[in-house]
Amino acid sequence: QKACAAGEGRKEDPDLLLIAQRLKDVKHKVLVLSGKGGVGKSTMACQLAFALAADGLRVGLLDVDICGPSVPQMLGLRGATVHQSASGWSPVYVSQEGLGPDDDDVELGVMSIGFMLPDKDRAVIWRGPRKNGLIKQFLKDTCWGELDFLIIDSPPGTSDEHISLAQYLKKSSDVDGALIVTTPQEVSLLDVRKEINFCAKTKIPVLGVVENMSGFTCPHCERCTDIFFPSSGGAEKMSSDMSVPFLGKVPLDPRFSKAGESGVSLFAAEDEDGDDEMAASRPSRVSAD
């Protein structure tokens, strides 16, 4: 408002420099996108953050889904609150024992509007400018410290929040790329194609496409059934047609649902007696690449 009153409204937003300064110690910034809701984007973002942290990396997870924040539930942080200090907002940390290298504890910093709502069932009924202002505040005021990866979980679509992220991160060495999540059926791929085109227009590299909920393997007969029929060839064919990397398929697996509901890492091994309980034992290792 002061800039507009002084006739400087067309100049670059001064907060962009503050965001760049805040994020200067973050080595890699990765967006997790989906064109359509309900495809498992937040699940992928949470489990990706867990996997990177289990490999000994310093990881932060920023939830910018303002109207539907599900990250606190998926990380077992419901009821947690954000603390403010002289240097800004402190992330909420989730810790899981024995999942890191040499059985170290895994610690993951998280920021979400879900930590700020006085009632977990309260609807966030905000117009675009107010949502954009909170996203800017998340980026400008959160004290992440030194991070190897900042994973940003965004809402579905290509609207205000996505445009704001592309604009706000422009000065902080941009984002390293976007991980796009879809399901096999055409109704999901229609929106994902738009998401890929959005990345091209905003010059955000597409790191790859993941096809989630890709078939269900019966634990009794081991037969794989396509629950969501890939009528147009699925994500692999779409990736080939649009010249973006295809990273692989993730099947429907009850362990994914259980991990999200319990707020734990999927990479925790099963109990030795073979049941599906998530045990606090060493996860499968992932590559930082």
Write a concise keyword list for the protein shown above.
single chain, 289 residues, alpha/beta, 8-stranded mixed beta sheet, two-stranded antiparallel sheet, 9 helices, 12 strands, 20% strand, disordered C terminus
Structure class: alpha/beta
**Strand percent estimate:** 15-25%
Radius of gyration equals 19 Å
Given the structure, what is the number of helices? 9
| Main sheet: strands, sense, barrel | 8 strands, mixed
Give the strand order of the largest sheet, numbering strands 1, 2, ... along the chain.
Answer: 5-6-2-7-1-8-9-12
Helix content: 25-40%
Shape: globular
Give me the strand/helix succession: HHEHEHEEEEHEHEHEEEHEH
Mean pLDDT: 85
Uncertain segments: 269-288
Number of strands: 12
Q: Kindly, what is the distance between the CA atoms of the first and last residues, rounded to a whole number of angstroms?
A: 43 Å
